[in-house]
Structure formats: structure tokens, C-alpha cells
Amino acid sequence: MNTPITFEIIQSQYEQELAHCMRAYHIDSWNTKPQKVGLTNHKTKYGRAMTNADVLINKAFIGTKSYNQLKKTIRHELAHFAAGLKHSHDNVFKMCLMVFDGEISVPQHEIDEIESNISFKWQVYANLEDGNRIHIGGVHKKTKTYTNYNQSERKNRSCNGVKVNTFDFELTV
Fold first, then answer.
1. pLDDT digits over 82-117, tens only?
2. Phi, psi of 104 (to 5 degrees)
3. Which residues, including other chains, have CB under 8 Å from residue 161's CB and lie 6 or more apart?
4. Could you give the residue range(s) of every CATH 3.30.2010.10 domain in the chain?
5. Mean pLDDT over residues 119-123, rounded?
6. 99 Cβ partners below 8 Å, 6+ apart?
7. What is the chain's percent helix, strand, coil content, to nearest 5?
């Protein structure tokens, strides 16, 4: 679609995806019946299934055209209600998600568009063996994955087939 996503579109898409999921698995069999959709500004999650039975969608969707990722996110959160929140991402949840998801394909540009609306404190760069430096993406905090990276360990990382020597961070302005 060419129309940028608004909260009204999120609400409409939520209703459509709820109807889709209820056709796939009758709502009387769900652990929790979802109540409504709202917004969140969580820094790392596209959506959240809340204990009060609300589905929260990240405000970062607003203004984007990331319709496939929106569908996938709503179905993911609805799968949490069908399985029960106690199941987190275990096999019971994965079965519900498999029934709901329908293998929605999300192009990378949709993810990039959403993530461009999320402000990260740090930008991560990989310094490659061939001398190149590649932007990896944004993070909210410096994690051991990058700060304690040891290129001589078994789990070496590479970018485009070139070994990573080190990672470094730049503060986002």
C-alpha cells in the first residue's frame, strides 16, 4: 500500500488480523481473549502482548509503509494470547504462530523503515580483516557480544564473507 501507516490503520489491520487468526483457531480455544490495540514506544520490540489482554504496537510503525511487518507483528502478539503468555516463545507458542502467520514475507526495506524511527544510543561498526569498516546497526547499550569480541574464538563473525577483526561504537547524535 502507498498510504503511510497511522494509528487508525493499525486499528483496522488489528481487526483484520484478529479475524484471520480466529478463523484459523477458534477464539474459544485461546488462553486469553485479546481486548484492544494500543501503542508503545518500546526501544526493542515491535509489539507486546500485555497481561491486561491488550496488544501494543510500536509507534515506530507510524509514518512507514511497513504493512507486512505490521501484519506479522500483530499475528505474533495474537499467538501469545492463543498459547498463553506463560509459554513465551516455546513450542506451544510456535505452533500457534505457525497456524496464524501464513509465512508472511517481510522485505528488508520495511524493517529498515521501522528501525529508522527508533532512536538508538549507539551505532555499531565492524572493522573487517580487509580494512573495510561496515555499519552494523544501532543498539541501545554496549553489549558483550561486541565489546568482548575475540576474533580468535571458534565463533568468528564475518560480513560479506570477510572476517571481523573488531567492533566499535559511535554515539548517535
1. 999 999 999 999 999 999 987 789 998 998 899 888
2. -65, 125
3. none
4. 7-115
5. 86
6. 24, 25, 79
7. 40, 25, 40
What mean pLDDT comes out for the span 35-45? 92
pTM of the predicted protein model: 0.75
Quick one: CA dihedral 155, 159, 165, 170, positive or negative? negative
Cα-based torsion angle of the residue sequence 122, 142, 63, 21 in order, rounded to the nearest 10 degrees = 170
Other beta carbons less than 10 A from residue 75's beta carbon: 23
3 state SS of 35: coil
| Residue ranges with strand state E in 11-70 | 36-40, 47-49, 54-58
Distance CA 3, CA 69 (A): 15
pLDDT digit string, tens, across residues 126-160: 999 999 999 888 888 898 888 988 877 767 788 88
Query: Across-strand partners of 39?
Result: 57
Give yes or no for residue 62 having a pLDDT over 80: yes
Q: How many residues does the chain have?
A: 173
- Name the CATH topology of 7-115: Zincin-like (3.30.2010)
How many helices (DSSP H) and strands (DSSP E) are in the chain?
Answer: 5, 7
20 close to 100: Cβ distance less than 8 angstroms? yes
